[in-house]
Structures are given as structure tokens and as C-alpha cells.
Amino acid sequence: MAESTYRADTQLDADALAFHMKPTPGKLSVASTKPMATQRDLALAYSPGVAAPVRAIAADPDTVYDYTSKGNMVAVVSNGTAILGLGNLGPAASKPVMEGKAVLFKRFADIDAVDIEVDYTDPEKFIACVRGFGDTFGGINLEDIKSPECFEIETRLREELDIPVFHDDQHGTAIIAAAGLINACDLTGRRMEDLKVVLCGAGAAGLTVLELIESMGVKSANTIVVDIDGVVYEGRPGGHERLNRHAIKTDKRTLADAAEGADVLLGLSAAGVFTKDIVASLAPNPIIFAMANPTPEITPEEVKEVRNDVIMATGRSDYPNQVNNVLGFPYIFRGALDVRARTINEEMKIAAAQALAALAREDVPDEVAQAYKVDRLQYGPDYIIPTPFDPRLISWVPPFVAQAAIESGVARRPLEDSEAYKQVLARRLDPTAAVQQRITASIRAAQKTIVFAEGEEQAVIRAAHAFQVQGLGKAILVAREDVVAANMKELGIPAGSLEVCNARLSEHNSEYADYLYERLQRKGYLRRDVQRRVNNDRNVFSACMLKMGHADGMVTGVTRHSNVVMKDVELVLDPIEGSRPVGVTIAITRGRSLVIGDTSVTEFPDAQALAEIAEVTANAARRFGITPHLAFLSYSSFGNPPGERTAKIQQAVEILDAQGADFEYEGELAADVALDPDHHKLYPFSRLTQPANVLIMPAIHSASIAVRLLKAAGGATVIGPMLVGLEKPVQIARLGANVTDIVNLAGIAAFDLNKVPG
Ligand SMILES: NC(=O)C1=CN([C@@H]2O[C@H](COP(=O)(O)OP(=O)(O)OC[C@H]3O[C@@H](n4cnc5c(N)ncnc54)[C@H](OP(=O)(O)O)[C@@H]3O)[C@@H](O)[C@H]2O)C=CC1
Ligand SMILES: CC(=O)C(=O)O
Ligand SMILES: [Mg+2]
After folding, report:
1. 143 appears as a binding residue in the annotation
2. Residue whose CA is closest, atom 6 of ligand 2?
């Protein structure tokens, strides 16, 4: 192995070297999307079969999008002349950055990207090279090419290629900075037209940021450009055409002169260029975007030493407000590729900037805050743009870009159905999306009323509000009105937007107490005991609402353990006749969905209980659109190895036989046998016609172990446990569940897993 003379100075640097080296050098590999297992696969993928798509494309060149990966493949191209803010270090040194961009394309937008480092600094040679291979890709992302050469390179390639060519350092950066600036203006009560802007760093990124914000309203007379030689004033010798366009008449000559009284200071230059004196001299409530990478022009800590009225952004992920082009290029290319745009034009860029700015003003899912290890992210000075790990970006930004492409006439194909497009986008990232979309479509149409039992909790109030705002149904909070009002005010949720039901004051209070007394009087409860439960126990009160038809479903469990909650609920509600409550979990792994029961209610089910669990779980699977092929799991298959614990499983199969269950089931089976498509070879008598997709566990402990193993070691996405089999739909969240979990469970309550699939 070659020894580098470079020595890592910090632990982060050492970690980064190890990360890039092990277990396989680099960050990228190529995966096949087709099987290559058999002689027939080979005959189709390569000679002779491949001749068919060859002829088809020769006859109609546009079909290249149908028969090859072109439509979802981007080249990240650099010559390494301006690698981040590190300077001209050549093509090989730029490779880690370009591989990095490629994996970000994949991670955030499911775009396949490869890095290509071109060893030409001469623009003509570089252009000729990229023109030569360009059309084999769906798009070209130019990266870290120094200015001014980058301007000519991009302009010419845009003219000469019929696909999007996008210099990310120019336009990606411009779009994100513009999005941040829209919101910083909103928060400081400014209009773009009035802003006094100073740009420091007149390179690829800087000039393009300036030009985009000028196209959005900033006046060129109000902007001053500063480069390494100071202010770019009219008549200054040297420079180049693109730079000199921004020269203004002024006596100011230095960055310090220019910054005095400015509203906005944009840095796209180099580390440490902004001094504390410069920061102090800016206008009140100034906006500073110090975007040089990896070290900004000034750090937020240094700014805070001078003043506290600044909206501050950097290009880094370890400070609030990361203005970095990672927020843009994946989604901009996604939108452009999906309509086979010929280019990425100004309209598409402005649409992306406005979409990002608008998303920052929406309520932020808790898991995004958790990814950044903060309690909450809320629109304000420390959160002016979305964070890169926001899962909403993929379905939010590309539709705006694609629509702008269509409206500006550069799309090759239309978007048939924009709602369906958003769903396709969401599925690109999240394997649970298909299941969730089925639920969402159904409950939007049904508009059920869901009672949120722990209605005074802030997370529950936010979830109830989100449930309503997303059009999933109507929410009722069981809570005291004054407590909810105070919480809603603090959360910025409009007063009166949620119905609140105070158990003690409810007009139905005595009706519920009568019902409960009737039900429990022979189980040791006095009238005053049940009255107390109705008044004080929100789970009991909420379950009574369901029982009496005053709500359709209920969600609870955020503040108490699920077994305690279950006992409260069972005081009021029974299982469906002939059935039992069952915890059902869906684990989605490598394209396979497994529906697992019982993951939360019955600790050691006997044969009868196992048969009932199988019925309930199979029905829930059907409700999710999954045809059940059910296996009762064990450590053995069909009596081998023998053991006393398998008897109850065999009896459960006999019970289902006697009942004439209307789904496919088999047992007992070991997990690997149940999931093996070839298990018939060993067990030709097995009734399973396909690998099992519904798994009935012999006891809760094995269910819990299996689900956690699937999640931790198998990388499965897990939904649940969901409660099925009670006479009314109740969902119990895990203790401390976040807003997204609660909204999802409210959705499942509204979906009603007991409903017989039609
Ligand atoms: N946050 C983000 O998303 C992004 C950040 N960046 C960062 O922006 C910076 C510039 O990148 P890019 O535009 O691609 O590179 P360029 O090389 O095209 O531009 C850099 C410009 O900054 C100028 N400059 C360097 N030092 C100073 C200084 N002390 N005062 C004023 N100007 C100075 C350079 O002048 P000269 O040519 O005379 O040396 C050059 O014009 C880099 O740090 C990069 O990491 C870039 C893209 C995205
Ligand atoms: C983020 C980026 O592209 C840069 O700093 O060059
Ligand atoms: Mg770059």
C-alpha cells in the first residue's frame, strides 16, 4: 500500500481517512438492477438479447430513456481546480468530493451518479471532453471548477448538450442561499428590493448567488462585490466580463468600507476573511452567510462575541442554518430528470429556492430534530432553511422544479398526475411509504374523528393539529381547555383550531358513568369508583367516547406504559366477538414485507389463542393489501426436532382446519424454512404456495426478539406494534413517542385494522 506523506491533524481528519479507506476504498460501487444468475439472464442482458434494445434505440433515439439507465444517471464532473475552498489540487484530489456528491445524489434523491475527473484545465479541452461523453448521461453536474473558466465551460456545455448541465457551485449554492435569504428577510421584516448587500468572494459561487438574488428583487445599485483585491468599482483595471458587470460607482475600496451599514454580508471566499470589526459595523439585525468550506469566513461563536442580533448561516452541518448545496442538487436534478428536461433554467432554480424557503416554515417532524440532537426545530433565526436530513425534501422540492420545467417549455414529457408523482417520490426513500400511502388515501376519504386521549401533552397537541392540517380526519383532544390553550399559544398553533373535550365537564359524563357502572358493578366497582375513572382517567373517558359512538378511533400511550393503558381500555371495550386483541408489527426488509403477530398483548398464547392471533393477523395483513401466506413459527419444522413446545402450534393449525380458515397457513415451521422459496423441495406436502409473509410467533418474547433483530441486524423498517382485535380501534403509542409516531398511529386508528377488507 502506498504511504501518504499527509498526516491527519485532528481526530476528525483521522476518522475521515479511515472512513474512506475501510472496509473498501472509496464511497461508491455499481449495482446491477437485473438478475445475472442464469444462462437466460445472460442471453437477455448481453448477446444475443441486447441486440433488440440496440436496434430500438437506433430506430428511435428517445427510447434510450426506456432501455438504459440514462434517465436516472448523472455524471459529477470536475477538474479539481477549486476543490471546496481548498484551491486547485488537481483531478485526483477532487475524487473524494466527487464520489461524495455521487453518493449524496443516491442517498437523498435515488439518482445514480458516477464521478468523472477530467485532467484538463484548458476550458476548450475540458468542454470537448465532456461534450464527447455528456449525452450518455441524463444530466451533468459540474463541480469545483475554478472561476472564471467555469462560466465559459458551463455556458458552452449547456448550449451544446441537450440534457441538464448544472454547475452546482454556482447554481446549487445560489438556490440555497436565496432560500435562506427569503426567510431571513421575512424574519427581519425586510424586502429584497431594499437590501444593502455585500458579497465577498467573486468566484463561481459568489457571482451566481448575487445574480440569482438580483433576479429575485435585490437591486444591483444596492450591492457591492469584494474580491481578493478589494471592492469591484467602476473603472477598476483587470477583472473579467462576468465580474466587471457588477462594478459600481463608489469610493469604497475595502471589505471593511463596503460592509459598514450593510444589511447582508455574503461570504463565498475563504476561511477567516470576516473580522469582528466588520461584523460590528453592519446594520441592526444583519444577515451573515459565511459559506466558505470547510472553514467559514467567521464562526457563529466569533459573531456572538460581537453582537446577538445576527441571523447567521454557514456551509457546515455542525452549526444551525447550513447553507449548503446538498439541499439543492439532488432534488433539482430529480425534478429535471423526471420530466426529462433539456436544461435547468432560471424558472426551475427560482421554483427550487421558493420551495425550500416555504418548507422551512412548515412544522418540522421530530425525527429531523432528533437527527440533529436538538429538542425541536422551529422556523426562526436559528432555522431559516430545512436541514439535509429532512425526509420531506424528496417529495416537496422536485414537483416544483418539474412543474417549472413544464411551464417554461423545457420538459420532454409531462407529469400526468402530480399527487401520484409526490407518492412515487416519497417511495424512493422510504420502503414503508407504500403501506403508509394506502392508509393515507383511505383515511383522507373517510374523514374519521380520532380522540387524542393525552390531549394536554405538547407532542399530542402538535400531532392532533398535524393530523387535521394534513386532511387525515378530525381530532378531539381530551384535556382541560385552559391547559390546551396555553400550550397551543406556546406552540404557535392557532387558538380554536382543535376541539377540546373536558372529561369532567362533558355533557356525556353521566352517560359514560352509567354505562361503565352497568358493566363493572359486579366486578367490585362502586358507582363513585366508576365516576372517578370517567372524570380523571383520560383513557377510560376516551374509550367511552368510542363505545358510545362519539368518536371513531383513539390514540394514547405517550405518557404511560402500554400494559397499564391496555388495562384502562379493557375496562370499557371488549375484544371483537370470538377474537382477541393482538399486537401486529410490519417489518419491511429488502423489498419483503413481513406481518408479525402477536408482538404486544398475549405473553404465552395457548393453541386457541394462537389460532385467534393468526386470524386477526391475517386479516390485518389483508387490510394492508397483503395476501396472507401464514406460518406458525417455531424452532422446528413439521415435528423435527421434536419437543413439547411444538404441540400447541400443531393444535393451532388443527383449530384453523376445523374452522375452515379462509387463508393459507402452515406450521410449525422454522423461520428459515418458512421464508425459503424452495422449502417444497424438502417438504412437498407443505400447504404454503409461497414464502410466508405473515409470521405467528410462539410467544411475545420471541416476537420481540425477532422484530428487534430484523431492525438492528437486518436493517428492516418496522411499523407497529399496532393493536388489532378490540371492538373499537384503539392505538397505543410507545412511551415518549414523537409527533410523527402519534400522527401515524392516529392514522392507523382511523384506518381501522379490524375492518374486513373489501
Ligand atoms: N456552502 C456552499 O454550499 C458552498 C460553498 N462554497 C465555498 O465558497 C468558496 C468559493 O468557492 P467557489 O466560488 O467555487 O470558488 P472560486 O475559486 O470560483 O471562487 C473563490 C473566490 O473567492 C476569492 N477569494 C479568495 N480569498 C479571498 C479573500 N480573502 N477575500 C475576497 N475574496 C477572496 C477568490 O479570488 P481569487 O480567484 O483572486 O483567489 C475567488 O474569486 C469556497 O470556500 C467554497 O467551499 C462553494 C460552493 C458551495
Ligand atoms: C459545498 C460545495 O460544493 C463546495 O464547498 O464547493
Ligand atoms: Mg463544490
Report:
1. yes
2. 84
Beta-carbon contacts of residue 455 (< 8 Å; ≥ 6 apart) = 461, 464, 476, 477, 478, 479, 484, 500, 501, 538
The candidate with the shortest Cα–Cα distance to 585, out of 735, 695, 472, is 695
Q: Is 248 in the pocket of ligand 2 (CB under 6 A)?
A: no
User: From residue 458, how far is each of 343, 361, 471, 485, 637 by CA, in Å?
Assistant: 46, 19, 20, 11, 49
Distance CA 321, CA 24 (A): 33
Residue 363: Cβ-neighbour burial (10 angstroms; 0-12, 13-18, 19+) = middle
The two counts, helices (H) then strands (E), for the chain are 31, 21
* Atom nearest to 326 CA in ligand 2: 1
Closest Cα partner for 164 from 30, 321, 335?
335
**ipTM of predicted assembly, 2 dp:** 0.97
Domain 171-407 CATH class label: alpha beta
What is the CB neighbour count within 10 angstroms for residue 309?
11
Single-letter amino acid code for the residue at 282: L
Closest residue by Cα to residue 175 from 357, 302, 44: 357
Looking at the chain, which residues constitute the CATH 3.40.50.720 domain(s)? 171-407
Say if residues 205 and 172 touch (Cβ distance below 8 Å).
Answer: no
Residue tagged 415451521 (cell numbers): 669
pTM, to two decimals? 0.70
343, 14, 91, 290: which is closest to 177 by C-alpha?
A: 290
Which numbered ligand comes closest to the C-alpha of 143? 3
CB of 473 closer than 8 Å to CB of 443: yes
- Sign of the dihedral through C-alpha 571, 572, 578, 580: negative
Determine which one of 101, 196, 349, 448 is catalytic: 101
582-725 falls under which CATH superfamily? Isocitrate/Isopropylmalate dehydrogenase-like (3.40.50.10750)
Q: Which residue intervals of the chain bear CATH 3.40.50.10750?
A: 582-725
- Count CB-CB contacts under 10 A for residue 622: 19
Torsion 422-427-429-431 (CA) sign: positive
Instruction: Answer yes or no: are the C-beta atoms of 538 and 713 closer than 8 Å.
Output: no
Cα dist. 700→27, 276, 388, 418, 602 in Å? 40, 61, 38, 43, 7
What's the topology of domain 438-572? Rossmann fold (3.40.50)
Question: Where in the chain are all domains bearing CATH 3.40.50.10950?
Answer: 438-572
Residue to mutate, 293, 318, 322, 325, ligand 1, most ligand atoms under 8 Å from C-beta: 293
Instruction: State the Rg of the chain over Cα.
Output: 31
With a CB cutoff of 8 Å and minimum separation 6, the contacts of 240 are 148
Ligand 1 interacting residues, C-beta cut-off 6 A: 82, 84-85, 146-147, 169, 173, 200-206, 226-228, 268-270, 273, 291-293, 315, 323-325
Active site residue 349: no
Over the chain (758 residues), the average pLDDT of each successive run of 10 is: 76 86 89 82 92 97 96 98 94 98 93 98 98 97 96 97 96 96 97 97 95 95 96 94 94 97 97 97 98 95 97 93 94 97 95 96 77 77 91 93 97 89 80 67 89 96 92 96 95 91 96 96 93 96 98 96 93 92 87 88 94 95 88 92 86 96 93 86 88 95 93 80 94 88 91 74
The CB of 144 under 6 Å from ligand 2? The reply is yes
